[in-house]
Specification:
With 154 residues, this protein is an alpha+beta fold. It is built from 3 helices and 8 strands, in the order H-E-E-H-E-H-E-E-E-E-E. The strands form 2 sheets. Strands 7-6-5-4-8 form a 5-stranded antiparallel beta sheet, covered by helices on one side. A 3-stranded mixed beta sheet has the order 1-2-3.
Length: 154
């Protein structure tokens, strides 16, 4: 397991009792480098939507636990937020919750002269994501997908 995966997994372990106590759920945790800074991001969710107060309460409690455990070697910035309306679908649990929803897919390389596709998420496997566009059903190899997220439909 990589250092990134270890940090994310350990953070989720610390976060779980916090979110259970505060009535929210973990959507995702990511440890990423942007420029010269490292970010530890915890995304939380609940059916009626996340408030700033929810983010603040989780952030304070998680910060205390991270300080107590002190397992991340790098200096980092902690962020706690909602995953937002156009949330990325990074894990199988995200895909499962989103079957039947409109999604946008961005590929690393063009396919049929296009890198971006949108349609209804019909299913997924360990190897592929299946969407239905207005014209046809399409399958994309997961390794070829740079980003899959819920479509913003206004």
């Amino acid at each position: 397991m990589s250092r990134k995966e270890t940090y994310e997994r350990r953070t989720e372990e610390l976060l779980l009792p916090i979110v259970q106590k505060l009535g929210v759920a973990i959507y995702d945790v990511e440890y990423v480098r942007e420029g010269s800074d490292w970010y530890l991001r915890a995304y939380i969710d609940k059916p009626e939507g996340v408030t700033i107060g929810d983010c603040e309460a989780v952030s304070r409690a998680l910060s205390d636990e991270l300080d107590r455990e002190d397992f991340i070697d790098d200096a980092y910035i902690l962020e706690v937020s909602s995953p937002g309306l156009g949330r990325a679908l990074r894990k199988d649990r995200h895909l499962e919750q989103s079957v039947g929803e409109k999604v946008e897919i961005r590929l690393y390389q063009p396919y049929e002269n296009c890198r971006e596709f949108s349609g209804t998420l019909r299913g997924y496997t360990d190897q592929a994501i299946i969407i239905e566009t207005e014209e046809k059903e399409m399958s994309f190899a997961r390794k070829d997908i740079a980003l899959i997220r819920l479509a913003l439909d206004f």
